[in-house]
Amino acid sequence: MSVPLTVGGVTFQYPQQFDRNWGPTLTGWSTAVTNVLAAFPSTGVLTLSPYPSSTLNFANATNTGFLALTINGSNQLTFNGTPIGAAAALTDGHVFVGNVSNQPVDVAMTGDVTISDTGVTTLGALKVGNAQIATLAGIALTKLASTSPYFWYVANSAGVLSPIGVTASRAVITDANGLPSASTVTPTELSYLSGVTSSIQSQLGTYLPLSGGTMSGAISMASNKITSLAAGTNVGDAATFGQLPGPAGTITNWVRYTPSLTGFGTPFGVDFMWRRVGDTLSVKGTFIPGTPTASAATISLPGSLVASITAVSNQYICGSWSNATASLVTEYAIYLAGNDSFVTVAIGNGTFLIPALGNQVSTAGQDFYAGFEVPITGWSI
Q: Model's pTM, two decimal places?
């Protein structure tokens, strides 16, 4: 029984022993084999032609079909339709990228990264933004570019970070743009606020200022005392030790003062003293007139004291005055009217006292003496 043999796509029924009429079949088979072997020249090179029918078929793993080894239109050796080996050419600086057909394609690098023909990749300028930096990237400060030391970095009007210098050892405040700037406050001054628990101004408002003020409560000095106290001159004034009441009421020490003298020009050598005796002011003093004028001759009381209206309602002789030369001493009266803050030098007109003018009772350079006692408003005992 013959055996089927295929050569060059043609099947021959190759005869076995005892078969008859095998001559033509054997001749055809031998011719086909000879033609196939003609593709193997003496140089050892197997030549298949022509394209595209020059193919070597390999049975698949299950012997259910063939896998072709052939050449495609790009002169690439393919196996079962897939190119194998290196491409025929690749453009300088390009790469192979698989296309939708799972075939390698020569493409240029574009986008954020480029590549050289030596395989070195380069990240393009301004290609890394906030979105490309991971939240936990942990970029070290040493990776940032160095700049001016001890400067603050703030966004300027264009939104660009810029360095600004702030004066050292000063408290920092913000300006109209919210940028840090140095104030005039030093660290030492700022430290005075340490421990503050409430408004400083509110706390200061509860204290009496050094310049004085009105107390709203009692003052307890405990075992301390008030020193360097001036003698009281008005109702409600504190009294010094020498002003303490005696058997006849309050008697104070003598206190010097400079009265206002009218009608006597510009006096000099002014030396007046006063003290309180109960409800009465006692004054004595001397001066030398300048050039007397035709103005009423008066002597002011100390401070803001005013004669008591209830004690004096009309003219009231309260003292005397005198002027002296080497050969003459003249003494006249001083009178007071109610609610005055001064006394008036008086002269008589033969019937009653009248106010004297400065040039009537004094002469320039002539010593002038005065003494008087006046009941004072608010000093009643």
A: 0.39
